[in-house]
Amino acid sequence: MIKTICVFCGSSLGSKPLYQDCAIKLARYLLQNNLGLVYGGANVGLMAILADTMLKEGGKVTGVMPESLVKKEVAHAGLTEMHIVKSMQERKQVMARLSDAFITLPGAFGTLDELFEVLTWNQLGIISKPIGILNAGGYFNSLLEMLEHAVSEKFLRPEHRDLLIVGEDVNKLFEKLQNYHPVTAEKWIERLKQGDI
């Protein structure tokens, strides 16, 4: 059962209001369904929009931030709970431990790093939790095309591509997350050793 959602998203607002609207809609869904939020703990960009929308309505918001970013004064001061960690790697580990599922909103290097880290953990069986993208305004279309290209070029198994759940609507995405069943690629590492992806 999903009780806490980890959201990866940008520390910038982006160029279009629809990205902010997407963060607000996601926060309202979490509130309406009594779901807790775990995120990177920042007071800037989509991260702040998401957290502030939750906090205004009494939602539970947990931040996880490395000491180095806290010192740069980008930590949100009004969260329900804040975990200050030593490194970016530890940040991802704590966020994953505290969360039942993951959703990615528009962002760049940091957002994609977090997304692909948890996807890789799922692929390797380190975790087994649903991972989704809220594809606001088609922001991730090029990324999704790249993943399909990786499948067609036999660098990515179709079963592993299916670890990433995609939706353009909050309600439909959550329905998919709730119905997630772990994807198993039988003996894929053994087959990889033999040159068979």
What is the gist of this entry?
The chain is α/β, with parallel strands linked by helices and 197 residues long.
Description:
With 197 residues, the chain is an alpha/beta fold. Helix content is 46%, strand content 16%. It has a 7-stranded parallel beta sheet, with helices on both faces. The two termini are 32 Å apart.
Strand content: 15-25%
Radius of gyration: 17 Å
Judged by helices, strands and strand pairing, the structural class is alpha/beta
Largest sheet entry = 7 strands, parallel
Number of domains: 1
List its traits:
globular; Rossmann fold; 197 residues; 7 strands; alpha/beta
What is the fold's blueprint, element by element?
Layout lengths: L3 E5 L8 H16 L3 E4 L5 H12 L4 E6 H5 L9 E5 L2 H11 L2 E4 L4 H16 L6 E4 L6 H12 L5 H4 L2 E4 L2 H9 L9 H6 L4
Parallel strand pairs: 1-2, 1-5, 2-3, 3-4, 5-6, 6-7
Helix pairs in contact: 1-2
